[in-house]
């Protein structure tokens, strides 16, 4: 969960973010350092209090498939998106879990289970 203007937004990244202005939606995003973030798939998941869900990405060798609760969203990040100037290039991406609330009151996010894998 990030506030608008948070550093995680401006660094090269690929994954899921919930922006401060959107209090319940999780977006599939990518961003090259110093470029504006690209919201590839807005609100791939609407969060509900005390409700378990999963999100994931899988690179199939050409495109990046996006999954929500184990189901392919059928809106992959295409090879043409990956080749674009605003996609992270020559970057070593590292798993990052972050919660930011701007100047708002404290909040909590609970991660029940996390898996990162590099296959191949």
Characterization of this structure:
With 120 residues, the protein is mainly beta. The protein has a domain at 7-51 and 78-82. The protein is 7% helix and 28% strand. The protein has 2 helices and 6 strands; from the N terminus they run αββββββα. It has helices spanning 7-10, 79-82, and strands at residues 13-17, 25-31, 38-46, 55-59, 64-68, 71-72. The strands form 2 sheets. Strands 1-2-3 form a 3-stranded antiparallel β-sheet. A 3-stranded antiparallel β-sheet has the order 4-5-6, with no helix packed on it. The N and C termini lie far apart (30 Å).
Please render the helix and strand layout as text.
Blueprint: H1 7-10, E1 13-17, E2 25-31, E3 38-46, E4 55-59, E5 64-68, E6 71-72, H2 79-82
Antiparallel strand pairs: 1-2, 2-3, 4-5, 5-6
- In the predicted model, the low-confidence regions spanning at least 5 consecutive residues are none
Tally of helical runs: 2
Rg is 14 Å
Tell me, what's the shape? globular
**Percent of sequence in beta strands:** 25-35%
Largest sheet: 3 strands, antiparallel
Helix proportion of residues, in percent?
under 10%
Strand order of the largest sheet: 1-2-3
Give the termini separation: 30 Å
Could you give the order of the helices and strands?
Answer: HEEEEEEH
